């Protein structure tokens, strides 16, 4: 989080931000960072374990059906990013499916690491819950430990509609694997003579 702008002259904004942080199920230490240390919060994240993805997907489809919305086959309630799990939906997800996430308030200067495939949502700025205006820098990468999961995500994206923003292969996992193997073979060949010595 490289910038958090706090507007001047807006009454009760601190109270609204505090309420949003509390309603977001943040822990006491996080609340103290805002109320006592006077740090600047920019975004409220909710991050879930990758292993719970299918349960979350099933839950969102169920809620959509209850609200009379369609669930087209070539769309995905997680990849569509059309849902925000507010406090009541998070509570219901926990009660009905046993899924509980982590609430993280990202303050100015904080870094948030999201593991591969972990469903997540960020509440940065909208008409209902306002945190302060912010600018964050994001970087995606593929770690060797999560190549399998990233490949699975790429396959998942293929089933989305052709007009879906996530339909394209953003991760380029096959290219990452190819170049990693090519570099490893190159290093082994360059050091072949030293490796054959006893």
From TrEMBL:
Keyword Ion transport appears in the UniProt entry: no
Tagged with keyword Transferase: yes
Pfam families in the cross-refs: JmjC (PF02373)
Entry EC number(s): 1.14.11.65
Domain of life: Eukaryota
Transmembrane segments: none
UniProt GO molecular function: chromatin DNA binding; histone H3K9me/H3K9me2 demethylase activity; metal ion binding; methyltransferase activity; transcription coregulator activity
Named cofactor requirement(s): Fe(2+)
Domain notes: Leu-Xaa-Xaa-Leu-Leu (LXXLL) motifs are known to mediate the association with nuclear receptors. The JmjC domain and the C6-type zinc-finger are required for the demethylation activity.
Task performed by this protein: Histone demethylase that specifically demethylates 'Lys-9' of histone H3, thereby playing a central role in histone code.
Protein name per the record: Lysine-specific demethylase
Record organism: Himantopus himantopus
Taxon lineage: Eukaryota, Metazoa, Chordata, Craniata, Vertebrata
